[in-house]
Amino acid sequence: MLCSPEELLQKNQALSNTWQRYQALPSFDSFVELAVSINSFTEFLIDKGITALHHASHQLEQVTLTLFSEDVAHPLPQAALNDLNERVLALGRMANTHATATADLAERRHDPLHPAPHDMPMDQSWLIGHDQSAWADLQAQLGYFGMAAQFITWQQPLPDNAGVAPLLLLDMSSLPEAEWSSRIQTLRQRFVMGQLIGLGVRSDFERMQQALRGGCDSCLLEGTPSHTIVEHILELNERQDQEAYRVLIVEDSKTASHLIRRTLEENQIDTKIVNDPRQTLNALRQFNPDLILMDMYMPNCTGVEAARIIRQHSEFLSTPIVYLSGETNVALQVDAMRLGGDHFLTKPFNPVFLNAIVKSKIERYRALRRTMYNDSLTGLLNHSSGKNTLDMLLSSVAHDGGFLSVVMMDIDHFKQVNDTYGHPVGDQVIRSLSWLLKQRLRKQDIICRYGGEEFLIGLPHTDAENAFAIMNRIRQDFSQIRHPVDDRHFVATASGGIATYPLYQNGDSLIKAADEALYQAKRDGRNRIHADED
Ligand SMILES: Nc1nc2c(ncn2[C@@H]2O[C@H](COP(=O)(O)OP(=O)(O)OP(=O)(O)O)[C@@H](O)[C@H]2O)c(=O)[nH]1
Protein backbone atom coordinates (compact mmCIF):
# COMPACT_ATOMS: atom_id res chain seq x y z
CA MET A 1 0.00 0.00 0.00
CA LEU A 2 1.35 3.43 -0.89
CA CYS A 3 1.40 6.32 1.54
CA SER A 4 0.54 9.77 0.27
CA PRO A 5 3.60 11.89 -0.62
CA GLU A 6 2.15 14.77 1.45
CA GLU A 7 1.93 12.55 4.52
CA LEU A 8 5.51 11.36 4.09
CA LEU A 9 6.85 14.89 3.59
CA GLN A 10 4.89 16.16 6.58
CA LYS A 11 6.34 13.44 8.79
CA ASN A 12 9.83 14.16 7.55
CA GLN A 13 9.33 17.90 8.05
CA ALA A 14 8.19 17.30 11.63
CA LEU A 15 11.40 15.38 12.26
CA SER A 16 13.67 18.02 10.78
CA ASN A 17 11.81 20.73 12.77
CA THR A 18 12.47 18.91 16.05
CA TRP A 19 16.11 18.47 15.04
CA GLN A 20 16.40 22.21 14.36
CA ARG A 21 14.69 23.00 17.66
CA TYR A 22 17.17 20.77 19.46
CA GLN A 23 20.11 22.49 17.76
CA ALA A 24 18.73 25.95 18.69
CA LEU A 25 17.95 24.91 22.27
CA PRO A 26 19.92 21.80 23.21
CA SER A 27 18.36 20.38 26.37
CA PHE A 28 17.22 17.00 27.62
CA ASP A 29 13.58 17.97 26.95
CA SER A 30 14.19 18.97 23.35
CA PHE A 31 16.20 15.77 22.88
CA VAL A 32 13.19 13.77 24.15
CA GLU A 33 11.06 15.57 21.52
CA LEU A 34 13.59 14.61 18.87
CA ALA A 35 13.63 10.96 19.98
CA VAL A 36 9.82 10.83 19.90
CA SER A 37 9.76 12.34 16.45
CA ILE A 38 12.33 9.85 15.09
CA ASN A 39 10.50 6.96 16.70
CA SER A 40 7.23 8.15 15.21
CA PHE A 41 8.78 8.41 11.75
CA THR A 42 10.27 4.92 12.06
CA GLU A 43 6.93 3.40 13.08
CA PHE A 44 5.20 5.24 10.26
CA LEU A 45 7.65 3.76 7.76
CA ILE A 46 7.09 0.25 9.15
CA ASP A 47 3.31 0.70 8.88
CA LYS A 48 3.61 1.84 5.29
CA GLY A 49 6.07 -0.92 4.41
CA ILE A 50 8.72 1.53 3.13
CA THR A 51 11.69 -0.70 3.79
CA ALA A 52 14.65 1.29 2.54
CA LEU A 53 13.70 4.45 4.40
CA HIS A 54 12.78 2.44 7.42
CA HIS A 55 16.30 1.01 7.56
CA ALA A 56 17.85 4.51 7.67
CA SER A 57 15.31 5.81 10.16
CA HIS A 58 15.72 2.80 12.41
CA GLN A 59 19.49 3.34 12.50
CA LEU A 60 18.96 6.98 13.42
CA GLU A 61 16.56 5.85 16.16
CA GLN A 62 19.13 3.43 17.54
CA VAL A 63 21.80 6.15 17.66
CA THR A 64 19.36 8.47 19.46
CA LEU A 65 18.31 5.86 21.97
CA THR A 66 21.92 5.19 22.99
CA LEU A 67 22.13 8.90 23.89
CA PHE A 68 18.76 8.89 25.69
CA SER A 69 19.73 9.37 29.30
CA GLU A 70 19.51 12.17 31.84
CA ASP A 71 23.24 11.67 32.47
CA VAL A 72 24.21 12.68 28.92
CA ALA A 73 25.09 16.39 28.77
CA HIS A 74 23.48 18.72 26.21
CA PRO A 75 24.49 19.94 23.73
CA LEU A 76 25.90 16.61 22.69
CA PRO A 77 29.60 16.38 21.75
CA GLN A 78 30.35 17.78 18.29
CA ALA A 79 31.05 14.35 16.75
CA ALA A 80 27.63 13.07 17.86
CA LEU A 81 25.95 16.25 16.57
CA ASN A 82 27.62 15.86 13.18
CA ASP A 83 26.64 12.23 12.96
CA LEU A 84 23.00 12.97 13.81
CA ASN A 85 22.94 15.88 11.39
CA GLU A 86 24.19 13.73 8.52
CA ARG A 87 21.68 11.01 9.28
CA VAL A 88 18.74 13.45 9.50
CA LEU A 89 19.76 15.08 6.20
CA ALA A 90 20.24 11.73 4.43
CA LEU A 91 16.84 10.57 5.62
CA GLY A 92 15.30 13.83 4.37
CA ARG A 93 16.84 13.34 0.92
CA MET A 94 15.53 9.78 0.72
CA ALA A 95 12.06 10.88 1.83
CA ASN A 96 12.01 13.54 -0.90
CA THR A 97 13.02 11.08 -3.62
CA HIS A 98 10.43 8.67 -2.35
CA ALA A 99 7.65 11.28 -2.21
CA THR A 100 8.37 12.42 -5.77
CA ALA A 101 8.24 8.83 -7.00
CA THR A 102 4.95 8.22 -5.17
CA ALA A 103 3.39 11.37 -6.59
CA ASP A 104 4.32 10.22 -10.13
CA LEU A 105 2.80 6.85 -9.49
CA ALA A 106 -0.41 8.31 -8.06
CA GLU A 107 -0.74 10.53 -11.12
CA ARG A 108 -0.44 7.54 -13.42
CA ARG A 109 -2.94 5.55 -11.39
CA HIS A 110 -5.52 8.28 -11.84
CA ASP A 111 -4.92 8.43 -15.54
CA PRO A 112 -8.38 7.64 -16.98
CA LEU A 113 -6.78 6.07 -20.07
CA HIS A 114 -4.81 3.57 -18.03
CA PRO A 115 -6.82 2.81 -14.92
CA ALA A 116 -5.30 0.33 -12.46
CA PRO A 117 -7.44 -2.80 -12.02
CA HIS A 118 -9.23 -2.72 -8.61
CA ASP A 119 -7.87 -6.11 -7.72
CA MET A 120 -4.18 -5.35 -8.25
CA PRO A 121 -2.90 -3.40 -5.28
CA MET A 122 0.77 -3.69 -6.12
CA ASP A 123 2.31 -1.63 -8.85
CA GLN A 124 3.78 -4.37 -11.07
CA SER A 125 5.34 -7.74 -10.47
CA TRP A 126 8.58 -9.00 -11.95
CA LEU A 127 10.24 -12.34 -11.65
CA ILE A 128 13.99 -12.19 -12.21
CA GLY A 129 15.84 -15.44 -12.77
CA HIS A 130 17.53 -17.69 -15.27
CA ASP A 131 15.08 -20.36 -16.37
CA GLN A 132 11.48 -19.24 -16.84
CA SER A 133 10.16 -22.79 -17.10
CA ALA A 134 11.11 -23.37 -13.43
CA TRP A 135 8.68 -20.63 -12.44
CA ALA A 136 5.82 -21.24 -14.89
CA ASP A 137 3.52 -22.58 -12.18
CA LEU A 138 4.20 -19.64 -9.86
CA GLN A 139 3.54 -17.19 -12.70
CA ALA A 140 0.23 -18.87 -13.54
CA GLN A 141 -0.90 -18.95 -9.90
CA LEU A 142 -0.03 -15.30 -9.35
CA GLY A 143 -2.05 -14.48 -12.45
CA TYR A 144 -5.23 -16.03 -11.02
CA PHE A 145 -4.89 -13.89 -7.93
CA GLY A 146 -4.56 -10.78 -10.11
CA MET A 147 -0.78 -10.35 -9.64
CA ALA A 148 0.70 -11.59 -12.92
CA ALA A 149 4.52 -11.41 -12.81
CA GLN A 150 6.58 -10.80 -15.96
CA PHE A 151 9.73 -12.85 -16.29
CA ILE A 152 13.13 -11.39 -17.19
CA THR A 153 16.61 -12.82 -16.80
CA TRP A 154 19.34 -11.44 -14.55
CA GLN A 155 21.13 -10.32 -17.74
CA GLN A 156 18.23 -8.16 -18.94
CA PRO A 157 17.80 -4.71 -17.43
CA LEU A 158 14.39 -3.91 -15.98
CA PRO A 159 12.69 -1.44 -18.33
CA ASP A 160 12.27 2.24 -17.42
CA ASN A 161 8.56 1.69 -16.90
CA ALA A 162 9.11 -1.23 -14.50
CA GLY A 163 6.98 0.54 -11.90
CA VAL A 164 7.71 2.71 -8.90
CA ALA A 165 6.71 0.22 -6.23
CA PRO A 166 7.01 -3.12 -7.98
CA LEU A 167 7.00 -6.55 -6.44
CA LEU A 168 10.35 -8.11 -7.37
CA LEU A 169 10.69 -11.85 -7.01
CA LEU A 170 14.37 -12.75 -7.22
CA ASP A 171 15.42 -16.28 -8.04
CA MET A 172 18.58 -16.23 -5.91
CA SER A 173 19.39 -19.85 -6.73
CA SER A 174 20.19 -18.80 -10.32
CA LEU A 175 22.62 -16.04 -9.34
CA PRO A 176 26.29 -16.64 -8.31
CA GLU A 177 26.59 -15.89 -4.62
CA ALA A 178 29.40 -13.40 -5.18
CA GLU A 179 26.91 -11.20 -7.04
CA TRP A 180 24.07 -11.32 -4.49
CA SER A 181 24.88 -8.22 -2.48
CA SER A 182 25.60 -5.91 -5.39
CA ARG A 183 22.55 -7.06 -7.41
CA ILE A 184 20.12 -6.76 -4.52
CA GLN A 185 21.54 -3.40 -3.45
CA THR A 186 21.22 -2.00 -6.97
CA LEU A 187 17.57 -3.06 -7.14
CA ARG A 188 16.92 -1.73 -3.64
CA GLN A 189 18.37 1.67 -4.50
CA ARG A 190 16.37 1.90 -7.70
CA PHE A 191 13.09 0.66 -6.18
CA VAL A 192 13.06 2.25 -2.75
CA MET A 193 9.36 1.51 -2.43
CA GLY A 194 9.39 -1.93 -4.02
CA GLN A 195 8.94 -5.28 -2.28
CA LEU A 196 11.99 -7.48 -2.82
CA ILE A 197 11.51 -11.16 -2.12
CA GLY A 198 14.42 -13.58 -2.46
CA LEU A 199 13.35 -17.02 -3.71
CA GLY A 200 15.27 -20.29 -3.62
CA VAL A 201 17.54 -19.15 -0.78
CA ARG A 202 19.35 -21.93 1.05
CA SER A 203 18.50 -22.13 4.73
CA ASP A 204 21.91 -21.27 6.09
CA PHE A 205 22.66 -18.23 8.18
CA GLU A 206 25.19 -16.55 5.86
CA ARG A 207 23.02 -16.69 2.75
CA MET A 208 19.92 -15.41 4.53
CA GLN A 209 21.97 -12.64 6.11
CA GLN A 210 23.46 -11.67 2.76
CA ALA A 211 20.05 -11.44 1.09
CA LEU A 212 18.39 -9.53 3.94
CA ARG A 213 21.35 -7.22 4.46
CA GLY A 214 21.42 -6.40 0.76
CA GLY A 215 17.86 -5.13 1.03
CA CYS A 216 15.47 -8.05 0.50
CA ASP A 217 12.28 -7.61 2.52
CA SER A 218 11.97 -11.34 3.00
CA CYS A 219 13.43 -14.62 1.81
CA LEU A 220 11.74 -17.87 0.92
CA LEU A 221 13.74 -21.03 1.14
CA GLU A 222 14.76 -23.35 -1.65
CA GLY A 223 11.94 -25.78 -2.43
CA THR A 224 9.12 -23.50 -1.18
CA PRO A 225 6.06 -24.55 -3.22
CA SER A 226 4.35 -22.02 -5.51
CA HIS A 227 1.19 -21.79 -3.43
CA THR A 228 3.24 -20.92 -0.32
CA ILE A 229 5.01 -18.16 -2.26
CA VAL A 230 1.64 -16.84 -3.46
CA GLU A 231 0.30 -16.91 0.11
CA HIS A 232 3.35 -15.08 1.38
CA ILE A 233 2.81 -12.32 -1.18
CA LEU A 234 -0.90 -12.10 -0.38
CA GLU A 235 -0.09 -11.86 3.32
CA LEU A 236 2.33 -9.00 2.66
CA ASN A 237 -0.49 -7.11 1.02
CA GLU A 238 -2.87 -7.88 3.81
CA ARG A 239 -0.56 -6.84 6.62
CA GLN A 240 -0.47 -3.31 5.31
CA ASP A 241 -4.24 -3.03 5.58
CA GLN A 242 -4.68 -3.21 9.35
CA GLU A 243 -7.03 -0.95 11.27
CA ALA A 244 -5.33 1.75 13.38
CA TYR A 245 -4.71 0.80 17.02
CA ARG A 246 -7.01 2.45 19.59
CA VAL A 247 -5.98 3.46 23.13
CA LEU A 248 -8.26 4.80 25.87
CA ILE A 249 -6.40 7.18 28.20
CA VAL A 250 -7.94 7.38 31.70
CA GLU A 251 -6.10 10.24 33.38
CA ASP A 252 -7.45 13.13 35.46
CA SER A 253 -4.66 15.55 34.54
CA LYS A 254 -5.47 17.30 31.26
CA THR A 255 -1.81 18.15 30.66
CA ALA A 256 -0.61 14.59 31.18
CA SER A 257 -3.40 13.09 29.07
CA HIS A 258 -2.69 15.44 26.17
CA LEU A 259 1.00 14.69 26.34
CA ILE A 260 0.26 10.97 26.11
CA ARG A 261 -2.22 11.55 23.30
CA ARG A 262 0.40 13.49 21.34
CA THR A 263 2.99 10.75 21.76
CA LEU A 264 0.60 8.02 20.65
CA GLU A 265 -0.99 9.92 17.80
CA GLU A 266 2.46 10.67 16.42
CA ASN A 267 2.62 6.90 16.03
CA GLN A 268 -0.68 6.60 14.19
CA ILE A 269 -2.46 5.29 17.30
CA ASP A 270 -6.00 6.65 17.74
CA THR A 271 -6.79 7.83 21.26
CA LYS A 272 -9.72 8.87 23.40
CA ILE A 273 -9.26 10.67 26.72
CA VAL A 274 -11.40 10.19 29.82
CA ASN A 275 -10.58 12.69 32.58
CA ASP A 276 -13.27 11.40 34.96
CA PRO A 277 -12.76 7.67 35.62
CA ARG A 278 -16.51 7.24 36.17
CA GLN A 279 -16.95 7.72 32.41
CA THR A 280 -14.65 4.79 31.61
CA LEU A 281 -17.34 2.16 30.91
CA ASN A 282 -19.22 4.41 28.47
CA ALA A 283 -16.01 5.27 26.68
CA LEU A 284 -15.03 1.59 26.48
CA ARG A 285 -18.33 0.72 24.82
CA GLN A 286 -18.21 3.59 22.34
CA PHE A 287 -14.54 3.51 21.45
CA ASN A 288 -13.81 -0.20 21.79
CA PRO A 289 -10.11 0.32 22.53
CA ASP A 290 -7.29 -2.22 22.10
CA LEU A 291 -5.67 -1.02 25.34
CA ILE A 292 -6.35 1.20 28.36
CA LEU A 293 -3.71 3.51 29.81
CA MET A 294 -4.79 4.07 33.39
CA ASP A 295 -3.55 6.67 35.82
CA MET A 296 -3.04 5.14 39.30
CA TYR A 297 -4.15 8.06 41.43
CA MET A 298 -7.24 10.05 40.47
CA PRO A 299 -9.83 11.82 42.63
CA ASN A 300 -13.08 9.83 43.16
CA CYS A 301 -11.55 6.54 42.09
CA THR A 302 -8.08 4.99 41.96
CA GLY A 303 -6.79 3.26 38.84
CA VAL A 304 -6.90 -0.11 40.61
CA GLU A 305 -10.57 0.39 41.51
CA ALA A 306 -11.38 1.39 37.94
CA ALA A 307 -9.52 -1.69 36.61
CA ARG A 308 -11.48 -3.98 38.95
CA ILE A 309 -14.77 -2.47 37.76
CA ILE A 310 -13.72 -2.91 34.13
CA ARG A 311 -12.83 -6.56 34.77
CA GLN A 312 -16.35 -7.25 36.08
CA HIS A 313 -17.55 -6.93 32.48
CA SER A 314 -16.85 -10.05 30.47
CA GLU A 315 -16.43 -8.17 27.19
CA PHE A 316 -13.48 -6.23 28.67
CA LEU A 317 -11.87 -9.09 30.56
CA SER A 318 -8.94 -9.34 28.19
CA THR A 319 -8.48 -5.67 27.21
CA PRO A 320 -4.90 -4.86 28.35
CA ILE A 321 -4.55 -2.25 31.10
CA VAL A 322 -1.26 -0.39 31.52
CA TYR A 323 -0.93 1.73 34.67
CA LEU A 324 0.78 5.09 34.67
CA SER A 325 2.05 6.31 37.97
CA GLY A 326 4.71 8.26 39.79
CA GLU A 327 4.74 5.32 42.19
CA THR A 328 8.07 3.48 42.32
CA ASN A 329 7.13 1.19 45.21
CA VAL A 330 7.53 -2.28 43.67
CA ALA A 331 5.23 -3.99 46.21
CA LEU A 332 2.39 -1.60 45.29
CA GLN A 333 3.05 -2.17 41.62
CA VAL A 334 2.82 -5.93 42.08
CA ASP A 335 -0.50 -5.52 43.90
CA ALA A 336 -1.84 -3.30 41.15
CA MET A 337 -0.89 -5.93 38.56
CA ARG A 338 -2.61 -8.67 40.58
CA LEU A 339 -5.79 -6.63 40.52
CA GLY A 340 -6.29 -6.62 36.80
CA GLY A 341 -3.33 -4.74 35.31
CA ASP A 342 -0.94 -5.89 32.60
CA HIS A 343 1.97 -3.49 32.92
CA PHE A 344 3.22 -0.61 35.01
CA LEU A 345 4.94 2.49 33.65
CA THR A 346 6.40 5.02 36.03
CA LYS A 347 6.17 8.75 35.36
CA PRO A 348 7.88 10.67 33.87
CA PHE A 349 7.63 8.00 31.20
CA ASN A 350 10.03 7.59 28.33
CA PRO A 351 7.73 8.23 25.33
CA VAL A 352 9.61 5.86 23.04
CA PHE A 353 9.25 3.12 25.63
CA LEU A 354 5.56 3.94 26.19
CA ASN A 355 4.95 3.58 22.49
CA ALA A 356 6.83 0.27 22.28
CA ILE A 357 4.95 -1.20 25.27
CA VAL A 358 1.58 -0.06 23.96
CA LYS A 359 2.23 -1.51 20.50
CA SER A 360 3.50 -4.86 21.69
CA LYS A 361 0.57 -5.30 24.13
CA ILE A 362 -1.90 -4.41 21.39
CA GLU A 363 -0.31 -6.84 18.94
CA ARG A 364 -0.76 -9.66 21.45
CA TYR A 365 -4.30 -8.59 22.25
CA ARG A 366 -5.24 -8.50 18.59
CA ALA A 367 -3.67 -11.93 18.07
CA LEU A 368 -5.79 -13.23 20.96
CA ARG A 369 -8.94 -11.69 19.48
CA ARG A 370 -8.15 -13.28 16.15
CA THR A 371 -8.23 -16.69 17.80
CA MET A 372 -11.67 -15.85 19.24
CA TYR A 373 -13.33 -14.29 16.21
CA ASN A 374 -11.44 -15.69 13.24
CA ASP A 375 -11.19 -19.09 11.73
CA SER A 376 -7.77 -20.64 12.26
CA LEU A 377 -7.42 -22.22 8.80
CA THR A 378 -8.21 -19.14 6.74
CA GLY A 379 -8.02 -16.15 9.10
CA LEU A 380 -11.53 -15.16 7.93
CA LEU A 381 -14.34 -14.36 10.37
CA ASN A 382 -15.71 -17.53 11.92
CA HIS A 383 -19.37 -18.60 11.77
CA SER A 384 -20.74 -16.65 14.72
CA SER A 385 -18.69 -13.48 14.27
CA GLY A 386 -19.58 -13.52 10.54
CA LYS A 387 -23.30 -13.62 11.35
CA ASN A 388 -22.97 -10.88 13.99
CA THR A 389 -21.00 -8.67 11.62
CA LEU A 390 -23.62 -9.23 8.91
CA ASP A 391 -26.38 -8.12 11.31
CA MET A 392 -24.43 -4.95 12.19
CA LEU A 393 -23.76 -4.21 8.54
CA LEU A 394 -27.40 -4.75 7.71
CA SER A 395 -28.54 -2.21 10.32
CA SER A 396 -26.11 0.36 8.98
CA VAL A 397 -27.20 -0.24 5.35
CA ALA A 398 -30.88 -0.11 6.43
CA HIS A 399 -30.16 3.17 8.21
CA ASP A 400 -28.33 4.79 5.26
CA GLY A 401 -30.55 3.21 2.58
CA GLY A 402 -29.15 1.05 -0.20
CA PHE A 403 -28.55 -2.57 -1.10
CA LEU A 404 -26.73 -5.37 0.66
CA SER A 405 -26.05 -8.58 -1.23
CA VAL A 406 -25.39 -11.76 0.68
CA VAL A 407 -23.61 -14.64 -1.02
CA MET A 408 -23.23 -18.25 0.07
CA MET A 409 -20.37 -19.88 -1.79
CA ASP A 410 -19.45 -23.54 -1.59
CA ILE A 411 -16.70 -25.63 -3.19
CA ASP A 412 -18.13 -28.27 -5.53
CA HIS A 413 -17.75 -32.00 -4.88
CA PHE A 414 -15.43 -31.22 -2.04
CA LYS A 415 -15.88 -34.63 -0.48
CA GLN A 416 -14.25 -36.08 -3.60
CA VAL A 417 -11.30 -33.68 -3.24
CA ASN A 418 -10.73 -34.95 0.31
CA ASP A 419 -11.28 -38.57 -0.65
CA THR A 420 -8.95 -38.41 -3.65
CA TYR A 421 -6.12 -36.20 -2.40
CA GLY A 422 -6.46 -36.24 1.37
CA HIS A 423 -7.66 -33.78 4.00
CA PRO A 424 -4.54 -31.52 4.05
CA VAL A 425 -4.85 -30.94 0.30
CA GLY A 426 -8.56 -30.21 0.84
CA ASP A 427 -7.55 -27.61 3.45
CA GLN A 428 -5.25 -26.01 0.90
CA VAL A 429 -8.13 -25.68 -1.56
CA ILE A 430 -10.24 -23.98 1.13
CA ARG A 431 -7.37 -21.57 1.79
CA SER A 432 -7.01 -20.75 -1.89
CA LEU A 433 -10.64 -19.73 -2.16
CA SER A 434 -10.33 -17.66 0.99
CA TRP A 435 -7.21 -15.91 -0.37
CA LEU A 436 -8.96 -15.18 -3.62
CA LEU A 437 -11.96 -13.69 -1.82
CA LYS A 438 -9.71 -11.54 0.38
CA GLN A 439 -7.76 -10.40 -2.63
CA ARG A 440 -10.79 -9.47 -4.70
CA LEU A 441 -13.29 -8.07 -2.26
CA ARG A 442 -13.26 -4.66 -0.64
CA LYS A 443 -12.28 -3.86 2.92
CA GLN A 444 -15.89 -3.08 3.86
CA ASP A 445 -17.14 -6.46 2.59
CA ILE A 446 -17.69 -9.34 5.01
CA ILE A 447 -15.93 -12.62 4.29
CA CYS A 448 -16.67 -15.45 6.67
CA ARG A 449 -15.89 -19.14 6.70
CA TYR A 450 -19.43 -20.26 7.45
CA GLY A 451 -18.78 -23.99 7.61
CA GLY A 452 -16.32 -26.55 6.25
CA GLU A 453 -16.08 -25.51 2.58
CA GLU A 454 -18.84 -22.92 2.70
CA PHE A 455 -18.30 -19.15 2.77
CA LEU A 456 -20.69 -16.35 3.71
CA ILE A 457 -20.03 -13.05 1.99
CA GLY A 458 -21.69 -9.68 2.59
CA LEU A 459 -21.38 -6.97 -0.06
CA PRO A 460 -22.75 -3.64 1.19
CA HIS A 461 -24.11 -1.12 -1.31
CA THR A 462 -24.06 -3.77 -4.03
CA ASP A 463 -27.21 -4.84 -5.89
CA ALA A 464 -27.82 -8.38 -7.15
CA GLU A 465 -26.59 -7.62 -10.66
CA ASN A 466 -23.25 -6.22 -9.49
CA ALA A 467 -22.87 -8.95 -6.89
CA PHE A 468 -23.37 -11.49 -9.66
CA ALA A 469 -20.68 -9.87 -11.85
CA ILE A 470 -18.15 -9.76 -8.97
CA MET A 471 -18.81 -13.30 -7.76
CA ASN A 472 -18.91 -14.77 -11.23
CA ARG A 473 -15.45 -13.39 -11.97
CA ILE A 474 -14.15 -14.86 -8.72
CA ARG A 475 -15.78 -18.19 -9.58
CA GLN A 476 -14.09 -18.20 -13.01
CA ASP A 477 -10.67 -17.40 -11.57
CA PHE A 478 -11.02 -19.96 -8.80
CA SER A 479 -11.66 -22.63 -11.42
CA GLN A 480 -8.26 -21.77 -13.02
CA ILE A 481 -6.15 -22.10 -9.88
CA ARG A 482 -4.00 -25.21 -10.01
CA HIS A 483 -3.79 -27.03 -6.72
CA PRO A 484 -0.53 -28.92 -6.40
CA VAL A 485 -0.39 -32.47 -5.19
CA ASP A 486 2.93 -34.32 -5.41
CA ASP A 487 4.15 -33.61 -8.93
CA ARG A 488 0.65 -33.22 -10.40
CA HIS A 489 -2.08 -30.69 -9.96
CA PHE A 490 -5.85 -30.55 -10.14
CA VAL A 491 -8.51 -27.85 -10.36
CA ALA A 492 -11.62 -27.30 -8.28
CA THR A 493 -14.77 -25.28 -8.84
CA ALA A 494 -17.25 -23.49 -6.62
CA SER A 495 -20.91 -22.45 -6.81
CA GLY A 496 -22.64 -19.48 -5.26
CA GLY A 497 -26.11 -18.19 -4.40
CA ILE A 498 -27.03 -14.52 -3.95
CA ALA A 499 -29.88 -12.85 -2.06
CA THR A 500 -30.24 -9.11 -1.61
CA TYR A 501 -31.58 -6.62 0.92
CA PRO A 502 -34.17 -4.99 0.75
CA LEU A 503 -35.89 -7.95 -0.96
CA TYR A 504 -35.03 -9.92 2.18
CA GLN A 505 -35.17 -7.86 5.33
CA ASN A 506 -33.09 -9.57 7.99
CA GLY A 507 -29.86 -11.52 8.36
CA ASP A 508 -31.49 -14.94 8.77
CA SER A 509 -33.82 -14.58 5.78
CA LEU A 510 -30.95 -13.28 3.63
CA ILE A 511 -28.76 -16.25 4.56
CA LYS A 512 -31.63 -18.70 3.99
CA ALA A 513 -32.45 -17.22 0.56
CA ALA A 514 -28.76 -17.16 -0.44
CA ASP A 515 -28.48 -20.80 0.65
CA GLU A 516 -31.49 -21.74 -1.47
CA ALA A 517 -29.97 -19.90 -4.45
CA LEU A 518 -26.74 -21.84 -3.86
CA TYR A 519 -28.60 -25.13 -4.02
CA GLN A 520 -30.26 -23.98 -7.23
CA ALA A 521 -26.76 -23.36 -8.66
CA LYS A 522 -25.74 -26.86 -7.55
CA ARG A 523 -28.87 -28.37 -9.14
CA ASP A 524 -28.16 -26.46 -12.36
CA GLY A 525 -24.84 -28.25 -12.72
CA ARG A 526 -22.40 -26.50 -10.26
CA ASN A 527 -19.52 -24.13 -11.14
CA ARG A 528 -22.03 -21.29 -11.47
CA ILE A 529 -23.62 -18.42 -9.52
CA HIS A 530 -27.36 -18.13 -9.08
CA ALA A 531 -28.95 -14.85 -7.96
CA ASP A 532 -32.33 -14.92 -6.24
CA GLU A 533 -34.35 -12.18 -7.89
CA ASP A 534 -37.90 -13.19 -6.98
N1 LIG B 1 -10.27 -30.75 4.10
C1 LIG B 1 -11.32 -30.34 4.78
N2 LIG B 1 -12.53 -30.91 4.54
C2 LIG B 1 -13.59 -30.46 5.22
C3 LIG B 1 -13.48 -29.42 6.17
N3 LIG B 1 -14.71 -29.20 6.67
C4 LIG B 1 -15.57 -30.05 6.05
N4 LIG B 1 -14.91 -30.82 5.15
C5 LIG B 1 -15.43 -31.85 4.27
O1 LIG B 1 -16.16 -31.24 3.22
C6 LIG B 1 -17.02 -32.22 2.65
C7 LIG B 1 -18.34 -31.57 2.26
O2 LIG B 1 -19.00 -32.50 1.49
P1 LIG B 1 -20.53 -32.38 1.07
O3 LIG B 1 -21.25 -31.43 2.01
O4 LIG B 1 -21.08 -33.75 0.93
O5 LIG B 1 -20.55 -31.65 -0.28
P2 LIG B 1 -19.66 -31.74 -1.58
O6 LIG B 1 -18.93 -33.03 -1.69
O7 LIG B 1 -18.82 -30.50 -1.61
O8 LIG B 1 -20.73 -31.69 -2.72
P3 LIG B 1 -21.55 -30.45 -3.27
O9 LIG B 1 -21.51 -29.35 -2.24
O10 LIG B 1 -22.93 -30.98 -3.44
O11 LIG B 1 -20.92 -30.04 -4.54
C8 LIG B 1 -17.16 -33.32 3.69
O12 LIG B 1 -16.49 -34.47 3.22
C9 LIG B 1 -16.42 -32.77 4.91
O13 LIG B 1 -15.74 -33.79 5.63
C10 LIG B 1 -12.18 -28.88 6.41
O14 LIG B 1 -11.97 -27.97 7.24
N5 LIG B 1 -11.15 -29.36 5.69
Automatic annotation (TrEMBL):
Organism of origin: Thiobacillus denitrificans
The Response regulatory domain, residue ranges: 246-362
Give any single GO term for biological process: cell adhesion involved in single-species biofilm formation
Q: Care to name a GO molecular-function term for this sequence?
A: diguanylate cyclase activity
Q: Which SMART domains match?
A: GGDEF, REC
Query: What is the name of this protein?
Result: diguanylate cyclase
Q: Superkingdom of this entry's organism?
A: Bacteria
Q: Which residues carry this modification: 4-aspartylphosphate?
A: D295
Question: Which Gene Ontology CC terms are recorded?
Answer: plasma membrane
- Kindly give the Pfam families that the UniProt entry links to this protein: GGDEF, Response_reg
Q: Which residues form the GGDEF domain?
A: 402-534
Alphabetically list the UniProt keywords: Phosphoprotein
Write down the NCBIfam families for this protein, in alphabetical order. GGDEF
Q: What is its EC number?
A: 2.7.7.65
Q: Which reaction does it catalyse?
A: 2 GTP = 3',3'-c-di-GMP + 2 diphosphate
